[in-house]
Amino acid sequence: MADLGRIDGRTKLIGLLATPIGHSLSPAMQNMSLRERGLNYSYMAFEVGNEQLADVVTGMRALGVRGFNVSMPNKTKILPLLDELSPAAQFTGAVNTVVNENGKLIGHITDGTGYMRALKEAGVDVVGKKMTLMGAGGAATAIAIQAALDGVTEISIFNREDDFYHRALKNAQIINEEIEGIRCKATVYNLDDADRLKEEISTSDILTNATGVGMKPLEGESVVPDASWLRPELIVSDVVYIPRKTRLLELAEEAGCAKAINGLGMMLWQGAAAFKLWTGEDMPVEYVKEEMF
């Protein structure tokens, strides 16, 4: 077993490329898991945006790092910099985990499975349910596709008409036309259409915020303006985990929603899938829960 008190000449590097990055719990979670498993790896966070991404990925490849996570705003921008994509990453057009296999960089996406596992752990059965999903970035895309695969029957996707709006339209096309064997209808709306958003939420079983609203620099803000938009039987979830209780989740509590779920579970389970890809071993999930949650 490696000497877990120090880094030596055989230590393998894993990283995280994102901005902002100071809030991330991934370094603590991954390093804790590596120590618990007795693995000689070190997980480091690097402040990287779109402008630096190509140079950093080139450097990661040259240094022979074992792999790295990718978070906002790099999940879609990294695609042309990789050698190969997993089937799930090809479907979603986004990557959050990269594995270096002898110089070949392979992109994976674990956000969707991580989010759906978090709902399951919270006692939510998604089969036959309607979801309103706010966002169309990398995480939102993975959630939309995986929700359709897991049995959600209707998804209303909301995004502003910005650079990601075309991704929202593509996600709906994939769900409606390209995935065989599912019974899910996806429709795209402009997030600036408050009346439509309120109406879709009123007929949904699950409301999911997969935008950055609620985390820095938008901490304290919510796309949903007040608790009157929500109702007790609605399941409200947020991919944001810092703060642990976003403004959206505060509104859910005010409305008496039975379940208000933050992004910690998604962060845990997507991280566990990445851990397995890098090391070949299972993350000690229960240990992480006890120590961090």
TrEMBL record:
What the entry lists under SUPFAM superfamilies is as follows:
Aminoacid dehydrogenase-like, N-terminal domain, NAD(P)-binding Rossmann-fold domains
Residue stretches making up the Shikimate dehydrogenase substrate binding N-terminal domain: 16-98
Which domain of life does the UniProt lineage start with?
A: Bacteria
Where, by residue number, does NADP(+) bind? 135-139, 239, 263
* Alphabetical list of Pfam families matching this protein: SDH_C, Shikimate_dh_N
Example GO molecular function: shikimate 3-dehydrogenase (NADP+) activity
Enzyme Commission no: 1.1.1.25
Catalytic reactions on record: shikimate + NADP(+) = 3-dehydroshikimate + NADPH + H(+)
Description of how the protein assembles with itself and partners: Homodimer.
List the PANTHER family hit by this protein, alphabetically.
Answer: BIFUNCTIONAL 3-DEHYDROQUINATE DEHYDRATASE_SHIKIMATE DEHYDROGENASE, CHLOROPLASTIC, SHIKIMATE DEHYDROGENASE
What is this protein's name? Shikimate dehydrogenase (NADP(+))
What is the organism field in this record? Robertmurraya beringensis
